[in-house]
Amino acid sequence: MAAEELHLAARPAALGPGLAGAVACGAAALACVVATARLALLAPALVPVLYLALMDLVGLVALVVALLVGVRRPGSPVAALLGLQGLVPCLVGVSDAWTALVTAPSPVLAATPWGAALAEASWMAWYVPPALLLLLFPTARLPGPRWRLVAAGVVGVPLAHLGALLLVPAATTHFPGVPAPLPAGAGVSAVAAAVWTAAPFALLGLLVASLVAAVRRYRRSTGVERAQLTWFLLGATFVPLTLLVCWLSYLVLDGPDLAVLGLVAVGLAIPAATGVAVLRHDLYDVDRALAATTTCALLSTVLLGVYTLAAFLGGLWLGRESPVLAAATTAVCAAALAPVRARLRRVVDRRVDPARQRVLGAVASLEARAHAGLVRPERLQAVLSEAFGAPVRVGYRLPGAASDDHVDADGAALPPVAAGEQVVPVEVAGEEVGVLVAPPGAPRTLLREAATAAALVVEVVRLRVGLTAALRDVAESRGRLLEASLEERRRLEQDLHDGAQQRLVSLGVALRLAQRRLASGALDVLGPGAAPGGPLDGVLDGAVQQLSTAVAELRQIAHGLRPASLGDGLGAALGSMLERVPVPVDLRMDLEDDDGSDAGRRAVPEAVATTAYYVASEAVANAVKHSGAERIALSAARHDDALVVSVRDDGCGGASLAAGSGLAGLADRVAAAGGDLRLVSPRGAGTLLEVRLPCGS
Length: 697
Prior knowledge:
The chain is of the alpha+beta class. Helix content is 64%, strand content 8%.
């Protein structure tokens, strides 16, 4: 079975060593609570009842978690260590209640040598269960053989401290006048005093070593074990810091007040973090919280060390306490807080979560280099793929595009998302500007952080891609307009050549021929042929007929450029155009003053009216020819400073603005007039073509 399954598998609630230890610690803690209550009842005014209740509450929390973990993993020593973690506050409560009664100005109980020694040594018991948990969690095995010395020291140093107190007179501590339980000679007492002095420093070193062991295990772990250690370290980071806070409390406040707060925090945080790690390690993502906690702990340690060293050296130099020195030291620590914190956070991020630091660092570096003009921001996809160690695609949503329409940095459509791939949106001010598409194995939390960090770069790239696409569309539209203009000129040239030009040439030839015949006398104007209906009238009638035909053809060509009916207003022109449409058309007009008057013609500028006429004409013609529509609706209305022309049909749909289509040319004409064209044409559901043309009054 895999290690992950060993950690997670729910096992029968058999009374294994772990569960048995937790139950035994619970029974012992209950006895301690009863003993504390009996001591408090002897003299309630002398005993800190609220403090003792807090100690018992802290122990109860740890014991409940110990029983839950023991039921889940009965054979693991983790449950027993958590039970011991809950027993210690209850033992300390008994010790502190007894101490309060024997050290009162009017003692209620008499101090005994053994009681004084045990009470004096009880504070080290706080640190034994957390240190052993740091060494054993979550596998219940030490990280390696060399850590056995650390584990032995965690247990041995408190015992050595207790042994020293049994030999050193308690007068040196909190019980003046109480003799040592085991009086010894001067030489042994000197050694015991040295052990008693060195034990706290040795314990601090062992606590730091235990934390290092847990961090090393965390860095080498994967999967479930890493998730469990993340939760555990979130609560255990402050174990060695609490001991430093204790020293600071005695140094600054001349009492253990700060130490009590730290011990209570550790007594609650470690059981809670351990319980979540065993029972619900996947409940939240805590990598960032762990990094912040570690940074805070290290920063506090550094500043506390600086403050302690400064106070110690100042005391040696001045021979007394100095408020000025204390204030100066505090100011130096405060000034160093921000830069030291920033440096520590970078170091911790690299150690605790190197993948996150690598990804976010790569994005920040790209943003800075792009801002300096050293690289193009389009390299974001390559940078993310390299940082994640997996192919990460970046899709950009162009302004105005649909929510699922994304392109790559070259403007090409983003390939469809494969099954199992993760899609994380990139947002700026609540608007989606792109997406990150990653393989299934990529950590989703880190993907979301990368999306947030890269949002500005994605916004810049999508605007650059959009600008490139717009310029390309403008160039293509200009080319199509030029081609259409040339084609229109060729058509006009052909129409003039084949129609009016030929008739005018024929007219000129006929008139020249008549002139020559008149000059030669072949056509006598005054003779019999000059009578009405004679040869001259025939020549003139033919010339007039050809001239009339040429004029009609020229008018038809001119109508193709600008319909003559527009002279009576856009509404009249559209109505005239619809008279020749074989399909029923509903016409709705809402144009200011468009009644054929001069004011009406000013309401819709001539260029706008001409464009609107051709839009309507082309759209209606397409609906009749290609959609099979049975009914068409045409509307033209003024909205503020724009003319909106809409053509809707109930045909087959499927119209497109693809290059080469008639609608593409229409779109170019609209764009040239500064307008917008919208086409909605789902297959089988008809077509809506709407054009908005700027129309300043």
